Amino acid sequence: MDTETTDTIIRATGRSLCEYGYADLTMQRIAAESSVTTAAIHYHFDTKEELLNAFLDDLVDRFEQQVSCESSDPRQQLTTLLDAVFSPPKSSSDEFPVALMELKSQAPYHDTYRDRFHELDDTVRTVVTTAVEEGIESGYFADVDAEEIARFVSTAINGGHVRMVALGEEPAKTRNVVEDYLEGQLDWRPEERA
Amino acid sequence: MDTETTDTIIRATGRSLCEYGYADLTMQRIAAESSVTTAAIHYHFDTKEELLNAFLDDLVDRFEQQVSCESSDPRQQLTTLLDAVFSPPKSSSDEFPVALMELKSQAPYHDTYRDRFHELDDTVRTVVTTAVEEGIESGYFADVDAEEIARFVSTAINGGHVRMVALGEEPAKTRNVVEDYLEGQLDWRPEERA
User: Is residue B9 part of a domain?
Assistant: First the structure.
């Protein structure tokens, strides 16, 4: 498959999803958003579901890259995760969290979307579990149940996403909730607030 | 306004929303779900937005009734809230959480929906804040920041809602997260697990 073309299509899918929403997303609109013809999009992706699977795969890949932290310091690993979740790149559209929430609402009807959301969730939980376990081992953190901490953090991240979309709340509010929790549980202080 | 008719329309709106989803919800479908004609629905509600406002108002009212607890025991007040959120009545549709998530995705485009979601959130946070403050005063709970606890609980409840829809996860998992947190913070033990 021609990577450059599929990349172009995937980017245009993201923009169209933000602009028109899930219900009004069509191959025609994606073509209009890009330099690619409707025929070419159909050549690469049979259905809207396939196209959105590719879009979500790309999202999962980029998220995994963002949270993969070169530092061996488990405190820095947690900060990198919180930055990736709560401070998305400025280039991303304001509507992106809404588009993502719409796709989450579609998950009950599309197992393939649901699989990708499980991948995202597994990524968050693995990063937290690994960092907490390493932090306990190296004496940075109090001795806690790392998987329980990870479940809390992932649930709060999901909650922050809904609150941003449904209530228009700043993601920083949820970041504070998570940081206060980690501070209390792990005896960890986020650097910027130390 | 004829309360019985509007009640019938609001119930039919809920069923149609669960069955067809937000994008495909029409006055015709709501009429087909009920004994009320399309003309009668238009007579009571000018637009789909007005109808969904009434649906959300009804939801807020019923939720407020569910969480209003006759017991003066703050521990029971928290249990009543968690029951209302995590153990909805058996009569409610499996699709209801999905329909509600779709409406949350629409909040950025409809301030009137957003206002109702703020009301729901305020209700949750007021119940928690009040119960925690009373529990501290009466010596049941440790001395904590009640509003901080309330923010945590509401964020986790929102997170549990997304996890149920996007991941197909049992709400009981999130209830455990909340209960463990309250247990740790307040020194409160949920009755059924004591």
Answer: no
